[in-house]
Amino acid sequence: MQYISVSLFVFFIALFCLPAYGQQGGIDYTKPGALLPYFRLKVADTILITPADKKEGRRKKDQPEPLVAVKATLTGADLNGNTNLFIMLFSPTCEHCAAETGLLEQHIELFKNNKLVLVTNPRMQADLPEFIKKQHTLDYPQLTVGYDDSEYIKETFIYETLPQINIYSKERKLLKTYTGDIPIDSLRAYLY
Length: 192
What we know:
Elements lengths: L1 H15 L23 E10 L17 E9 L9 E5 L5 H12 L8 E6 L7 H8 L7 E6 L3 H5 L7 E5 L5 E6 L4 H5 L4
């Protein structure tokens, strides 16, 4: 009887208290072959919206965080096409992420037939305008930068080193995931 009680307790904890893994029936979106999960990206602008009563560069505790002006919203449907999709998870304050972005920009001509999207956590949106200006990402129309407005990062981040690049086929199935400093030669095999 005690075994059954403990088993039921564990079952109900797992059922009601632990977050579901994957939005659609326990799908592991980190495994090759997994379809692109629900995706919505707020495309960031270089303009930062700050609270109106900001004084001396310091924010009051009860003031909301500054927000980034949003130029557009992209969904997975907007990213469909006959090309591979490269999604880089990054932090705007990460030096490795800035270096990887610079490497991608140096070789941007390789991505002319592919889609390249940089996605950060929504909590990092206040740092996006400076990143966009510093990295000159607006100079590269093939490059889209924004913050996650869905659960994409939660579903696909493998909790290793940033940046993380997820490569999807034209059918939007995960082909490969790279983390850390990623040489351009590693990405060439997936370019059209």
